[in-house]
Amino acid sequence: MNSTQGGDPFATHLLQWFDVSGRHDLPWQHPRTPYRVWLSEIMLQQTQVRVVVPYFERFVAALPDVGTLAAAPLDDVLALWSGLGYYARARNLHAAAQLCAQRHGGELPRDFDALLALPGIGRSTAGAILSQAWGERVPILDGNVKRVLCRMHGVEGWPGLPAIEKRLWAIAEAHVHGVPADRMADYTQAQMDFGATLCTRHDPACMLCALQHDCVALREGRVEELPTPKPGKPLPERHALALLLHDAQGRVLLQRRPPTGIWAALWSLPEHTDHDQARAWYSGHIGDGYDSAEALDPIAHGFTHYRLTLQPLEWRGAALGASVRDDDGLRWVARDELRSLGIPAPIRSLLERRLP
DNA sequence: AATTCGGGGCA
DNA sequence: TGCCCAGAATT
Fold first, then answer.
1. Which CATH architecture has domain A9-219?
2. Which nucleotide does the CA of A84 lie closest to, via C1'?
């Protein structure tokens, strides 16, 4: 008859893991007062434990309780925060302490909505304070918990999406009901320790995991895929015109690309950003007839930093004007010569389709 | 819903 | 470099 009887497997196994492998010596755990839990939670927003520990110790040594924080000049608070980043956290912390002095008798309120009304405290931080400081049955949902729940339950989609986050809160809420009443503080700490030290973003220790039989991602071999990564910003798109000119002998006009940049020094088709430029180039090098071009199917090509769409325009029976024959960057190329030249793959593919 | 805040660790 | 981390406030 152990203390976790009746809980769901997630809470039960997580607490068993925590008792053996969790972190029990973090400075805000001794003593675990509401003020120290609050301060640690604010400092730990978007900031790793290793970075926070020395700041926390300096801060509580200088400002050991809500009253001294509220009475301290903001400059002192910011000085203690200096180097941690996200200085709005420090300003909010200071303002919240003063609100506590006004509204709550100089202490942090033991009430979810009252906590949420304080600047710098959102739903997850309020849950962390109530559960860790008072043992109340309130869930949290930070980056660690999101990662763990996405894997355990096979939740797809970037956890930052509102719809996904809503699902994760519902799951977190459900799990909380399976936690033994006297273990909520440990449960909250256990989730964060578990995500930070075992169920890590990269190379999670699934072989050592106390929850490996509860994990959808492990069962389906999708641990590395979940949680779904944040979608990268859509790559910038660039468009260009590629001029495909055949002469009377069936050769094609290639141009050596500049020595730097994309496809540096390779042989490719003469390329222009718009019709005005292309028309001007055509007039100078070929002559009349720009508008007789046939527009071929566009070529899409992805690079690491942008997507390029090339619109090929094709002419047959073209000839270079006499005045540009010395242009070193231009060259008529027969089909047999193509394989001996450095040509970008999508251009080579196009040429092979158009040079039968 | 997207943006902003911003310091350090790490691939 | 770009991405990630015990998120919340702002627009």
1. Orthogonal Bundle (1.10)
2. B7
